[in-house]
Write a structure and sequence with these properties.
Number of strands: 0
Radius of gyration: 22 Å
Order of helices and strands: HHHHHHHHHHH
Largest sheet: none
Number of helices: 11
Structural class: mainly alpha
Helix content: over 70%
Shape: globular
Length: 251
């Protein structure tokens, strides 16, 4: 009788050891790891924030002799998204810096983890960090250039293309940063791959942002068409990145 109980305890112990957490549990654990690690050190957020401020200063010097007027609104959307893209490149380059230290990335890949959960957790953390920087950088951008032109009443709607664009940038950037993280000159290589790939998303987001800043009768149509293109691009590219991620990390 005692031997049977002992065997049952051993079997339950082996099953508990061999039990694999669900994909959602893996995703949640990996996401909390990234968030706690970054909020403890603040390396990525602080570096992105300082870089965003420096880009704004450079834009200010470049436009210091420009005449104030409504024409500024026609280029302000492009300048704003240039700020977002440059800042996100810096953050994406650093997104796997902790995992690459002391072979942590290899150890994580040796664990029985769903590669899709790794991708989704890293993408979500990148979205959170980018949004935190944008919450500070975008108002600072408009405060810096408020004397050039006054946006239309629909300017608050730029939140929508900013959110859609940030999700797409984080999804595609996570895949590309994983590809380039072990290469020489990864900073340049990531930029060479990243900018051409996100060009359709960038074009749609700039169009939507410029439309809501200028205002007028065509805002609704332009915003709707641009957002449909941006959301469709996000869905296709993020799904493709999620499917290809296991091949990328296993290569």
């Amino acid at each position: 009788m005692a031997d049977r109980k002992k065997e049952k305890l051993q079997e339950s112990g082996r099953s508990a050891i061999c039990a694999r957490p669900s994909t959602f549990a893996q995703y949640k654990t990996l996401l909390m790891k990234d968030l706690k690690q970054e909020f403890r050190t603040k390396d990525m957020i602080v570096s992105m924030g300082i870089y965003a401020v420096l880009v704004i200063v450079v834009f200010g010097v470049a436009l210091s002799f420009a005449k104030p007027g409504s024409e500024f609104l026609e280029v302000s959307g492009g300048l704003l998204w240039s700020l977002v893209v440059f800042t996100s490149l810096l953050g994406l380059n650093r997104s796997f810096s902790h995992e690459m230290e002391n072979g942590c990335m290899e150890g994580m890949l040796l664990a029985p983890l769903d590669r899709g959960a790794v991708f989704l957790a890293k993408m979500t953390s990148n979205v959170v960090f980018l949004l935190i920087v944008e919450v500070v950088a975008v108002p600072l951008y408009w405060l810096f250039f408020s004397s050039y032109a006054t946006p239309a009443d629909t300017a608050w709607m730029m939140i929508i293309p900013l959110l859609v664009g940030t999700v797409g940038i984080a999804g595609i950037g996570t895949l590309l940063s994983t590809i380039t993280t072990r290469t020489r000159g990864k900073d340049v290589l990531l930029a060479l791959l990243f900018v051409p790939v996100i060009f359709p998303l960038l074009y749609a987001c700039v169009s939507a942002t410029t439309a809501v800043l200028i205002g007028g009768d065509v805002v609704a149509d332009t915003l709707m068409v641009s957002l449909v293109l941006a959301v469709g691009y996000d869905v296709i590219m993020i799904l493709a990145s999620w499917i290809l991620y296991e091949f990328v990390v296993s290569a």
